[in-house]
């Protein structure tokens, strides 16, 4: 079967549909995921086809959604939970961090918690506050959780199914500003491992690491840099926990320079972890300190300022220049 | 496992010694429960059987002795927990002293296929479910953070964060409905937890999805130092009203009433009528935990008042007055209590510290590259000492 072209959001819908078809234990639950199909229409049509029993409109209570999903998982179900927006996950943070992440270990491995928590995240859509945040580091910091984020439709399709198949809790960060970006999805392909990074563009002068919504921006930056004769290698991390450091290391050993880009604030962000680990692994290969580009230590700004806050082409290229200047 | 809880033994038919205790029914016909008319009571603090229009119970002598035995052994085990903490064998122990009837009565109402979601104080429930008592000690000794397979006895792990388990219980109950099963769930929590958002959300979810879950609130009057008045303006059982399901207050020191009310509540959930709230009105006779000092916030007079309502004493009075148990029974139970204490002491003293590599185990079901890396690094670090030693 030939590859189909579809939007990233649609690829997730298709993926959920496949999972619901293949495993009767898979449930989709969240606010407005039923009749409405979710505020981003990611669950569009699923309730109609699979019924209210499997595609569940929940009360408006995030802790309740995740807490009951844990109970359903204990009963043998595989709930896929939607948190409507990034900034709304915090009422559920206690259940995720205190309960979901630790329960497998507390039971000495006797029980499994195959819960997927979908969070549309990131800015760039001109939203009101609490609708544009990037809280991935707050989850990646927690042992017991896995965190992934697709950057394109094909990855969205496969990574969602792999996350549902995982026996561990997975926080699935969906780059909401890329929901409508179309890409090729080959449903007959054999996907690579869920937590493996992908070299999105090969280059020789400098490595750029990004994930989710920033991959596209970094690809554009690499194209612009190429016009100036600079060869950037772009790595799509795909997984923020665990991180495929081997792929990043191999690239940095080749290029000698690394810039990490994410929308989340730089301070204590995943870029800090990547910088520290890569510095340790590649100390003698580095020609410049690892630089980070991301949000500032400020509340996510009002929409009219977000273009200043978010890493864009110019800020990424500025850091590339600084790294190359060493 | 050699677990001798009465529940485990109760799988054998026990009709042989079925001396029915129906006589109190007649005797009590004229009697009304004392005190709060909203409080379901079937056995007064003085050990007299009374009737309640909505909650009847008819137990054999054997069953009554079984309830008594469960409460006595639970108390003995609990006392051992306090002692072991004082001796430095445990880091902490939350005593259930005074709440034996609420726990044994409610747990004895459950079927094997029902599921209990406890707080960290449900030692009596654990006993009735057949969880080996030794298993409860691991987390308080610091050798694990939970330590048993919840599915072995349909008894979930102890939950320390207040009220979180009410949502797990509700989700589990939602799963039962999806499976088309007629099992039910009990969510245990306390008066303090009634203020938690998770408990309120679990009420909402259970009501909306008509989930077969009994919310069993042991109101032991104190959330560490805060009295129930700091949690609620209304009696806790009335919290259910606003969520659209029934709530009932039961004398939590009356094991017969706790059994009868919980049985009825479980049947209510099984019959597809949705959740029910039971408030077991009881008293925490001891400190919140072995780290707590109740003399700083409550009067001893209050405690003394509750001593007269002791759950074990009143059933003993009843058994003796009705001739349902003889001296041999009480004497052999005392021996059994002593033996249980000894068994627990021996278990704790032979409980080995976990292997140092255990902290890297069971974090993920499918593994995690960082955990593998850190485990290997730690092992290499440890091995470096051995090399130095050589």
From TrEMBL, chain A:
SUPFAM superfamilies: Thiamin diphosphate-binding fold (THDP-binding) (SSF52518), TK C-terminal domain-like (SSF52922). Pfam families: Transket_pyr, Transketolase_C. Coiled coil: none annotated. InterPro entries: THDP-binding, Transketo_C/PFOR_II, Transketolase-like_Pyr-bd, Transketolase_C. Keywords: Oxidoreductase, Thiamine pyrophosphate. It comes from the Bacteria. SMART domains: Transket_pyr (SM00861). Residues 6-181 form the Transketolase-like pyrimidine-binding domain. GO terms for molecular function: magnesium ion binding; oxidoreductase activity. Its cofactor is thiamine diphosphate. This is Alpha-ketoacid dehydrogenase subunit beta.
From TrEMBL, chain B:
GO terms for molecular function: magnesium ion binding; oxidoreductase activity, acting on the aldehyde or oxo group of donors, disulfide as acceptor. Residues 69-353 form the Dehydrogenase E1 component domain. The keyword Oxidoreductase applies. Pfam families: E1_dh. Keywords: Oxidoreductase, Pyruvate, Thiamine pyrophosphate. It comes from the Bacteria. SUPFAM superfamilies: Thiamin diphosphate-binding fold (THDP-binding) (SSF52518). GO terms for biological process: branched-chain amino acid catabolic process. Transmembrane segments: none annotated. Its cofactor is thiamine diphosphate. Residues 1-40 are annotated as: Disordered. Residues 11-30 have a biased composition (Basic residues). This is Pyruvate dehydrogenase (Acetyl-transferring) E1 component subunit alpha. The gene is pdhA.
């Amino acid at each position: 079967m030939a590859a189909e072209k579809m939007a990233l959001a649609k690829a997730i819908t298709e993926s959920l549909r496949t999972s619901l078809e293949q495993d009767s234990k898979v449930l989709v639950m969240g606010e407005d995921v039923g009749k409405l199909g979710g505020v981003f229409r990611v669950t569009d049509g699923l309730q109609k086809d699979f019924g209210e029993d499997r595609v569940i409109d929940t009360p408006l209570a995030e802790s309740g959604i995740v807490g009951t999903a844990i109970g359903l998982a204990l009963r043998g179900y595989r709930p896929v939970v939607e948190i409507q927006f990034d900034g709304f996950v915090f009422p559920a943070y206690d259940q995720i961090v205190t309960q979901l992440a630790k329960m497998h270990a507390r039971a000495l491995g006797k029980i499994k918690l195959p819960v997927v928590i979908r969070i549309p995240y990131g800015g760039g859509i001109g939203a009101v506050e609490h609708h544009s945040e990037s809280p991935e580091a707050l989850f990646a910091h927690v042992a017991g959780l896995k965190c992934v984020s697709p950057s394109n439709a094909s990855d969205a399709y496969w990574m969602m199914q792999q996350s549902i198949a995982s026996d561990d809790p997975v926080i699935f960060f969906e780059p909401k500003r890329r929901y409508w970006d179309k890409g090729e999805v080959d449903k007959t392909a054999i996907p690579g491992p869920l937590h493996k990074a992908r070299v999105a563009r090969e280059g020789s002068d400098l490595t750029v690491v990004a994930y989710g919504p920033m991959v596209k921006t970094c690809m554009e930056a690499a194209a612009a840099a190429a016009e100036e004769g600079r060869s950037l290698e772009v790595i799509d991390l795909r997984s923020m926990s665990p991180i495929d450091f081997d792929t990043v290391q191999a690239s940095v050993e080749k290029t000698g320079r690394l810039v990490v880009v994410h929308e989340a604030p730089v301070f204590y962000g995943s870029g800090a972890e990547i910088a520290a680990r890569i510095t340790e692994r590649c100390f003698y290969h580095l020609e410049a300190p690892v630089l980070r580009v991301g949000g500032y230590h400020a509340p996510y700004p009002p929409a009219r300022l977000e273009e200043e806050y978010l890493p864009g082409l110019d800020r990424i290229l500025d850091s590339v220049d600084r790294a190359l200047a060493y | 496992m050699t677990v001798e809880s009465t529940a485990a033994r109760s799988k054998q038919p026990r009709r042989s010694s079925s001396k029915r205790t129906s006589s109190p029914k007649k005797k009590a016909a004229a009697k009304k429960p004392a005190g709060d008319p909203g409080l379901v009571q079937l056995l007064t603090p003085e050990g007299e059987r009374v009737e309640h229009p909505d909650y009847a119970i008819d137990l054999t002598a054997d069953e009554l002795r079984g309830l008594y035995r469960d409460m006595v052994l639970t108390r003995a085990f609990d006392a051992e927990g306090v002692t072991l903490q004082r001796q430095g064998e445990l880091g902490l122990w939350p005593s259930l002293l005074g709440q034996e009837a609420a726990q044994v009565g409610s747990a004895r109402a459950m079927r094997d296929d029902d599921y209990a979601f406890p707080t960290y104080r449900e030692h009596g429930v654990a006993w009735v479910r057949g969880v080996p008592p030794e298993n409860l000690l691991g987390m308080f000794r610091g050798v694990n953070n939970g330590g048993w397979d919840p599915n072995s006895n349909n008894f979930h792990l102890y939950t320390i964060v207040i009220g979180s388990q009410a949502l797990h219980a509700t989700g589990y109950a939602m799963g039962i409905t999806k499976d088309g099963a007629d099992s039910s769930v009990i969510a245990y929590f306390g008066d303090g937890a009634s203020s938690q958002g998770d408990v309120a959300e679990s009420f909402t979810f259970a009501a909306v999805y008509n989930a077969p879950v009994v919310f069993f609130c042991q109101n032991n009057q104190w959330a560490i130092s805060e009295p129930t008045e700091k949690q609620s303006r209304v009696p806790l059982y009335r919290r259910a009203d606003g969520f659209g399901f029934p709530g009932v207050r039961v004398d939590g020191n009356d094991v017969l009433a706790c059994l009868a009310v919980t049985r009825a509540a479980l049947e209510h959930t099984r019959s597809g009528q949705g959740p029910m709230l039971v408030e077991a009105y009881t008293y925490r006779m001891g400190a919140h935990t072995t780290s707590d000092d109740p003399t700083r916030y409550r009067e001893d007079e209050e405690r003394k008042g509750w001593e007269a309502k002791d759950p074990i004493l009143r059933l003993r009075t009843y058994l003796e007055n009705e001739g349902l148990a003889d001296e041999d029974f009480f004497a052999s139970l005392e021996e059994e209590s002593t033996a249980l204490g000894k068994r627990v002491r021996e278990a704790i003293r032979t409980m080995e510290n976990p292997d140092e590599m255990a902290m890297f185990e069971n974090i993920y079901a499918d593994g995690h590259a960082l955990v593998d890396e850190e485990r290997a690094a730690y092992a290499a670090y440890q091995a470096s000492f051995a090399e130095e030693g050589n």
